Amino acid sequence: MPSLVLFNKPYGVQSQFSKDANNKFAPLSTFFSDKSLRVAGRLDATSEGLLILTSDGQVNKAITHPPRANDGRKQGKTYLVQVEGIPTTAQLEQLRQGVMLKDGKTLPAEVQHLSEDELPMPLWQRDPPIRERKNVPDSWLMLTIYEGKNRQVRRMTAHVGLPCLRLIRWSVAGFELGNLGVGEFVRVHLNKKRLRQLGID
After folding, report:
1. Is there a contact between 32 and 54 (Cβ–Cβ < 8 Å)?
2. Is 138 a catalytic residue?
3. pTM for this model (two decimals)
4. Catalytically annotated residue among 20, 34, 44, 117
5. Comparing 83-87, 163-167, 193-197, which segment has the lowest mean pLDDT?
6. How far apart are CA 58 and CA 61, in angstroms?
7. CATH homologous superfamily of domain 76-172?
8. Given a cut of 80, is residue 73 above it in pLDDT?
9. Region label for 188, one of left (φ > 0), alpha (ψ between -120 and 50) or beta (otherwise)
């Protein structure tokens, strides 16, 4: 039965097993010794949260190049985004409609402005902590996108005037971070129903 690993990637860890040239960030081999695992959808070293790994090539492909869902869109990736400033209705609407970036217009996104109490999980202290400006408030957004442009979420929020302070991936292709602690992981065995949801018969 195919399986995958859900990992709560800490800040400062790369989505690769080998060290980078300047050793600035820790590799995944700090946490995993199974050399058959491959990353299904990268996450920047300066981003946190859900990283999926699997040794099954078909599962990896289904997550990184998912079939279109019933409504004609790909399965989404949802992020918790701490931004500088308080979002206006106009800024949120821009994100929902898609914004024009250097590499093209993004697909429409789903976005909600949440209080910290409304986030789907308790937050952990980031190391290092985010920069804070006493005279500038910050806010949380829950943002779901349906594509994977480079550093897309950060560029989208910056484009509408809401610089990203912290980025946590909450879900990918229906798999959620849940209550995994920082640096923790869990192995999930995929039954026939879950495989069908991924487009694998």
Report:
1. no
2. no
3. 0.93
4. 44
5. 193-197
6. 5
7. Alpha-L RNA-binding motif (3.30.70.1560)
8. no
9. beta
